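Q: Hi! First time doing this. I have a protein sequence and I read that you can turn it into a structure. Is that right? Here it is:
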Amino acid sequence: MKSISVVVPVYNEEGNVKELHKEIVDVCEANGFDYEIIFVDDGSSDKTVEICKGLSPLKLICFRRNFGQTAAMDAGIKASSKDYIVTMDGDRQNDPADIPNMIEYLEENNLDVVSGWRKNRKDSFMKRFVSRGANLLRKILVHDGIHDSGCSLKVYKRECFDDVNLYGEQHRFIPALLEIKGFKVGEVVVNHRARTAGVTKYNWKRTIKGFVDMVSVWFWNTFASRPLHLLGGAGLAFIGLGFICGVWSVILFISGAKMSNNIFPPLLTVFFIIIGLLLFVFGLMSEIMMKTYYGSCSDKPYNIKEVVENR
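A: Yes, that's right. Below is the predicted 3D structure, encoded as structure tokens:
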């Protein structure tokens, strides 16, 4: 019997939660799953909480105020207890009927994560346009092999979240974060439905936050365990530019040029060398901070899948 926890962040979805809950229950019962359903209310101001309190079976987590979808997803994941964790949106655009196929694909291909791909999206043109732009930028920076990281419908093995804490808008980049740790990620085309009740919660602010978190994931993937390579390298580049400007200044001085009329090269020399030294020092400090971080918490720059002892 497959054991699954279905985690759903909800925010002002009074017109969707009851039907979504029924769909999840029907799919789990039809497939004989050992299941739990966790709704995390992200500070709704409508009747979402009131309706959820009348649903069963359901574990309802209520935030004191709106903290965002990522925080709600993190709270639901931490409250889950089953072998597989399924995440999805609360607007009924994700189809619970896709869950059994995603679990089967995960098991058949020995994966740790399966992400949904909304190949035929039922969203507005502007929302699809922004999403495609974000996906293109994500492919350049993150390289997680996922076509649609914004799709909340995903299936994870429980061990994926042993040492993972989510912040900002990082729920979009969970597969990338897990791939950094060595987990195997796959993707399946899923059904996407048009919203029938409520209004979308996506806006330009979330787009900007998502971009910032994308840069954070890129840095974590590339330089988290070796920040000196980035900052120190940039520092040496600036010092090199300062040296070139210094040579330029010396040549001007030897040639008899009036330095009062050629103050620009010496100023550039001082500027580039100071910036270079600062970046190099920041790189050293970041290196020390990362060693302190990895030495004082359970997170590590590597992840062990299993240990085999033959006796």
